[in-house]
């Protein structure tokens, strides 16, 4: 950085080091990411479940958004990206101090205040109409603090062990058989907001206004659209009906699959990812789930195992196989996908990248399963994890004393 001229005093509101263009884009990207949750996921979760779970599901998403925001600026951000104690463990520290929030953050291509880098996480889809709301209130901040942040520290903190080895990551009970949405039109509105908001997530990854951000937006939308159409086509071929809910699942798997490679793939590689993101999760959900005994035991309201776990693992593998070395240099310098390694005579480097990707997947799965299980066992000592049979039968009114849909005169004499 060039030193500030002695006759030029810094403006505290607009310091000399800040890139106004990059900062404006980051603020826009973070706003889009926020819209994914509120109102995107609130509307989606409130409409994609049975009528009796509409209030509870929407409120789970809204509560999670609020408590995650508080936890992130309170301590989660610095555990994830600052003050590393161990290769996968950050040190908790408050980040509400004005000097910290308005200090500068360095990246490969821009300078902007730190506060615009605080992201949020929501986990609820697999638990809708299942988990005790009081247990959910405890689970979210605990899971964020002890699971998500340490995963983030390993992957995205410059000193995290997975970052150092060069991993590529661009940024039971009732109703198990029949769980229809209560409002498909609202469900489509929710997934639409989720889709558009994802632009901020992926295109905000470079932390700058550049061609890579433009590529990330293009890949995000085209991959999502292709994945949706692939899922829709498979539904028509094998089941005879163009399912709206199926198309929604295909859209979500497309968003998940493209995220870690949005800015590091192009051309035929991007086309292949688009097709696989719609077909492989479809196969795992619609075929394997009905045939494999272990998968039949999974009580997963919104098929999160397939749209997130299967699609997420697929994205990690495809990143190691198809990442373009020229685009990788923007972020990782030395990384090369196996496909390009075979083409350029760098098989060893490409094979090493695949090993790193598999290692990252195994680490994230083991860490999250272990910590999440421990958190659930701990919460169960305080409040029941699962709703009682009576509340499962009744739904929203038994939990919140409120219902999503009421008619004039209900409850009146």
Automatic annotation (TrEMBL):
Gene3D superfamilies: Ammonium transporter AmtB like domains. SUPFAM superfamilies: Ammonium transporter. This is Ammonium transporter AmtB-like domain-containing protein. Keywords: Membrane, Transmembrane, Transmembrane helix. It comes from Salix dunnii. It is found in: Membrane. GO terms for cellular component: plasma membrane. Belongs to the ammonia transporter channel (TC 1.A.11.2) family. It is a multi-pass membrane protein. The keyword Membrane applies. One of its GO terms (molecular function) is ammonium channel activity. The keyword Phosphoprotein does not apply. It holds the Pfam family Ammonium_transp. PANTHER family: AMMONIUM TRANSPORTER (PTHR43029:SF11), AMMONIUM TRANSPORTER MEP2 (PTHR43029). It comes from the Eukaryota. The chain crosses the membrane at residues 24-46, 58-77, 133-157, 184-201, 213-239, 251-276, 330-349, 355-383. Residues 24-173, 176-405 form the Ammonium transporter AmtB-like domain.
């Amino acid at each position: 950085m060039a030193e500030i001229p002695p006759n030029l005093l810094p403006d505290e509101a607009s310091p000399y080091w800040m890139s106004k263009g990059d900062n404006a884009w980051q603020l826009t990207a973070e706003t889009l990411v926020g819209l994914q949750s509120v109102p995107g996921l609130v509307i989606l979760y409130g409409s994609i479940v049975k009528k009796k779970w509409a209030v509870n599901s929407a409120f789970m998403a809204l509560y999670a958004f609020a408590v995650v925001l508080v936890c992130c600026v309170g301590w989660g951000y610095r555990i994830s990206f600052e003050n590393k104690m161990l290769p996968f463990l950050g040190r908790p520290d408050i980040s509400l101090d004005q000097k910290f929030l308005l200090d500068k953050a360095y990246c490969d291509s821009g300078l902007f205040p730190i506060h615009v880098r605080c992201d949020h996480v929501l986990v609820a889809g697999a638990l809708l109409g299942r988990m005790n709301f009081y247990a959910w209130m405890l689970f979210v901040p605990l899971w964020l603090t002890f699971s998500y942040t340490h995963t983030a520290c390993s992957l995205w903190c410059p000193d995290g062990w997975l970052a150092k080895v060069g991993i590529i990551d661009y940024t039971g009970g009732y109703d198990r058989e029949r769980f229809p949405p209560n409002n498909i039109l609202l469900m489509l509105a929710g997934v639409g907001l989720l889709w558009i908001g994802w632009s901020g997530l992926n295109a905000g990854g470079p932390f700058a206004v550049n061609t890579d951000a433009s590529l990330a937006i293009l890949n995000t939308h085209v991959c999502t659209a292709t994945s949706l159409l692939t899922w829709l086509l498979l539904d028509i071929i094998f089941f005879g009906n163009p399912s709206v809910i199926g198309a929604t699942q295909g859209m979500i798997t497309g968003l998940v699959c493209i995220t870690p490679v949005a800015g590091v793939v192009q051309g035929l590689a991007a086309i292949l990812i688009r097709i696989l993101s719609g077909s492989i999760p479809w196969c795992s959900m619609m075929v394997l789930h009905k045939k494999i005994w272990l998968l039949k035991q999974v009580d997963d309201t919104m098929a999160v195992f397939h749209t997130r776990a299967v699609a997420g693992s697929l994205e990690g593998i495809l990143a190691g196989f198809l990442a373009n070395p020229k685009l990788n240099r923007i972020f990782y310098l030395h990384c090369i996908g196996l496909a390009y390694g075979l083409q350029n005579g760098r098989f060893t480097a490409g094979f090493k990248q695949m090993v790193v990707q598999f290692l990252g997947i195994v680490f994230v799965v083991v860490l999250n399963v272990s910590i999440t299980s421990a958190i659930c066992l701990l919460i169960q000592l305080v409040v029941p994890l699962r709703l009682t049979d009576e509340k499962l039968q009744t739904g929203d009114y038994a939990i919140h004393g409120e219902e999503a849909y009421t008619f004039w005169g209900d409850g009146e004499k």
